[in-house]
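Consider the tokenized backbone below.
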């Protein structure tokens, strides 16, 4: 039995393809490349699902034939990754050779390079996705055969409706055992001018670093907002890569960055991105980074781009945590802080909401004075100790916040519970700010859900992270013999969603 028979389940009839493409009608043509023209149409797949797909029709005049056709089938049947194009089937009838792929509605990356509406953040995410695919193909874990693409370029990076990148066109690729650091010696280098590794062109010596060079060119295209080659009347007149590298070496990135991107790029992100892209273009294989290293740096560049000043405050807070917390990204730090941490010797509790706003609570042990209170413990408290006692003569709360988010409206709550809370959850505390004469009465009490109550006092807009407060409390006489437990005073941003 022919080894190709294992792919019989992927075969699609030429009749069905002609029907889907209206006999390869010009209105169905959506592009073309080194393999031949590409068409769009609807097809019923072997699973029974009807889907919009892309048909790539081999045209031998473009230089590819049966070898490249079967290579793409075998490789994409074996390699599965979210950032690789998905092969859905193929047709081989008479002289026809057609590959059927998932249809990616946004087309190829090269169409968007000069479009300033494609943000730097979007570009970084696309580069990260491509790097993940190439890392998978190069297989740093040495668990499968290594794949060398040999034709990485922006025209071979396709984008779906969500801008997810998919590496395509594997007709020129080479396979090799994963444990070989250098793969092939080939007499004639192949690839696309501008993207092809000059060392490979000169020597015929191919290795995974050749793909790294090509990807480095794509990274510069993404940053500079233009293709690496200039054409006139269909003829190549200039390759921009050498100039790009010189500008990068001389720290003159402003001379080459896409003008529409300059104002939106975080400088740290640009430095990280350009440095790893520049290493990709090194003449020395030893200096060129691995795809795994490139991926790591691009992820850092993306994180730096998404960094905002509020994250700096989160980093400062994390350094004070008890116990110390560790994290590898701002996203992980945000996740850890969203659960709340103790700082200030365990006397202050801080958390962050989904909008990055700080929520701060100060322990009653630290800020409550007056009254008949003693240090005590209580179930489900955020602090190791609370204040307990009877409120014969009222009490005072004084202190200063440390981490409030500026220009945010905060609501101030007294957090407490009492012995008879099961009978009546609302306690009408009488309170006033130190600067005021008349007392107000708290009218709303919220159940925190863990046995503690939150009596709403007042609201204010923060203008800085530290806010001095002083509040005096009195109780109606009917509560004079009630045992109270005070956990603390809480400053909760209005945007906070429990």
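A designed sequence for it:
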């Amino acid at each position: 039995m022919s080894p190709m028979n294992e792919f019989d389940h992927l075969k699609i009839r030429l009749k069905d393809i002609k029907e889907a493409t209206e006999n390869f009608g010009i209105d169905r043509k959506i592009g073309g490349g080194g393999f031949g023209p590409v068409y769009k149409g609807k097809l019923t797949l072997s699973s029974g699902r009807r889907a919009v797909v892309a048909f790539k029709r081999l045209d031998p005049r473009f230089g590819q034939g049966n070898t490249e056709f079967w290579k793409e089938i075998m490789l994409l049947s074996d390699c599965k990754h979210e950032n690789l194009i998905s092969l859905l089937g193929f047709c081989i009838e008479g002289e026809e050779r057609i590959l059927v792929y998932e249809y990616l509605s946004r087309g190829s990356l090269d169409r968007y390079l000069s479009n300033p509406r494609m943000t730097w953040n979007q570009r970084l995410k696309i580069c990260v996705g491509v790097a993940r695919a190439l890392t998978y193909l190069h297989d740093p874990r040495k668990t499968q055969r290594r794949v060398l693409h040999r034709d990485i370029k922006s025209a071979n990076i396709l984008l779906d409706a969500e801008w997810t990148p998919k590496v395509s066109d594997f007709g020129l690729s080479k396979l090799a055992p994963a444990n070989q650091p250098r793969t092939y010696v080939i007499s004639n280098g192949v690839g696309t001018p501008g993207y092809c590794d000059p060392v490979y062109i000169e020597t015929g010596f191919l290795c995974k670093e050749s793909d790294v060079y090509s990807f480095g060119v794509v990274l510069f295209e993404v940053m500079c907002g233009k293709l690496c080659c200039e054409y006139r009347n269909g003829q190549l007149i200039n390759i921009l890569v050498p100039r790009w590298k010189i500008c990068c070496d001389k720290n003159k990135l402003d001379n080459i960055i896409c003008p529409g991107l300059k104002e939106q790029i975080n400088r740290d992100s640009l430095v990280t991105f350009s440095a790893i892209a520049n290493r990709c273009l090194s003449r020395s294989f030893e200096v060129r980074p691995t795809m795994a290293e490139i991926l790591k740096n691009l992820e850092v560049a993306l994180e730096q781009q998404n960094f905002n000043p509020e994250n700096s405050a989160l980093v400062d807070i994390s350094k004070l945590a008890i116990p110390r917390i560790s994290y590898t990204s701002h996203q992980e730090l945000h996740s850890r802080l969203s659960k709340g941490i103790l700082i200030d010797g365990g006397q202050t509790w801080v958390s962050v909401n989904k909008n990055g706003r700080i929520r701060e609570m100060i322990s009653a042990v630290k800020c409550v004075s007056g009254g008949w209170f003693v240090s005590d413990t209580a179930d489900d408290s955020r602090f190791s100790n609370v204040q307990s006692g009877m409120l014969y003569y009222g009490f005072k709360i004084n202190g200063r916040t440390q981490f409030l988010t500026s220009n945010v409206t905060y609501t101030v709550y007294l957090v407490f519970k009492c012995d008879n809370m099961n009978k009546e959850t609302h306690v009408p505390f009488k309170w006033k700010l130190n600067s005021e004469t008349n007392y107000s009465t708290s009218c709303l009490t919220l159940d925190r859900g863990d046995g503690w109550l939150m009596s709403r006092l007042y609201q204010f807009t923060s203008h800085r992270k530290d806010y001095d407060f002083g509040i005096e409390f009195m109780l109606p006489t009917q509560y004079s013999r009630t045992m109270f437990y005070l956990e603390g005073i809480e400053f909760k941003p209005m945007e906070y969603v429990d």
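The chain has a mean pLDDT of 88.
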